Amino acid sequence: MGKVHGSLARAGKVRNQTPKVEPQEDKKKRLVGRPQKRFLYNKRFVNVVATQGKPRGPNAQSQ
């Protein structure tokens, strides 16, 4: 019979040799469901600033 799994001497090898990384600060979670729809409605229809010319699209980069 051959050996089926590795010996316990090698247990945790990969985890121990990976570099330690500082935990990142938590970002604010994206809205989902009804609050997301409310956010989109406010963004598209309520907070609209009337300007002359063509309206800016939602993906416009310049200000």
UniProtKB/TrEMBL annotation:
<keyword id="KW-0687">Ribonucleoprotein</keyword>
<dbReference type="InterPro" id="IPR006846">
    <property type="entry name" value="Ribosomal_eS30"/>
</dbReference>
<keyword id="KW-0689">Ribosomal protein</keyword>
<dbReference type="Pfam" id="PF04758">
    <property type="entry name" value="Ribosomal_S30"/>
</dbReference>
<dbReference type="GO" id="GO:0003735">
    <property type="term" value="F:structural constituent of ribosome"/>
</dbReference>
<protein>
    <recommendedName>
        <fullName>40S ribosomal protein S30</fullName>
    </recommendedName>
</protein>
<comment type="similarity">
    <text>Belongs to the eukaryotic ribosomal protein eS30 family.</text>
</comment>
<dbReference type="GO" id="GO:0022627">
    <property type="term" value="C:cytosolic small ribosomal subunit"/>
</dbReference>
<feature type="region of interest" description="Disordered">
    <location>
        <begin position="1"/>
        <end position="34"/>
    </location>
</feature>
<dbReference type="GO" id="GO:0006412">
    <property type="term" value="P:translation"/>
</dbReference>
